[in-house]
Amino acid sequence: MITIACLSMTAAVSPRRIQPTLRQLPIINLSPARVVEQPHADEVKPVQWPKPQLIKGIYTTGWIAGSSKWFPQLVDFIDATELNALVIDVKDDTGTLSYASKVPL
Questions:
Q1: 68 domain residue, yes or no
Q2: H runs (alpha helix) in the chain
Q3: Do 77 and 56 form a contact (C-beta atoms < 8 A)?
């Protein structure tokens, strides 16, 4: 729909109205270009990027995260390993939320 509206709007505009006149054209600077010299390799300092933190995580469903039986075991597993992230998927493959949401859909 939007494409049709845009096409019909451009068709209604006269070609003469969109042609720029000489007064509307930008002024071009014809002065010689400025030459910038490249710095020598020994003058260039390497960029020091911060080392990224290594993230090691685990994925779980909302049902496991909400389970009083399974979630404590999952936390113990995370504490016993080098995991430092947890992803909790609160929506299952059918689109059902694993908790009672008050947000209107």
A1: yes
A2: 2-12, 15-18, 62-65, 70-80
A3: no
Check: CB of residue 86 under 8 Å from CB of residue 78: yes
Task: List the domain range (segments joined by +) for residue 59.
Answer: 52-99
**49-84 pLDDT, tens per residue?**
888 789 999 999 988 998 999 999 999 999 999 999
The closest of 93, 103, 85, 84 to 62, measured between CA atoms, is 93
- CA–CA separation, 70 vs 5, rounded Å? 56
Within a domain: residue 14?
A: no
The helix/strand/coil state of 97 is: strand
What's the structural domain count of the chain?
1
Inside any domain, residue 95: yes
Global pTM reads 0.44
Tokens 């990027």 correspond to what residue? 49
- Comparison of pLDDT for 47 and 105, the residue scoring more: 47
| DSSP code of residue 25 | S
90: number of Cβ within 10 Å: 14
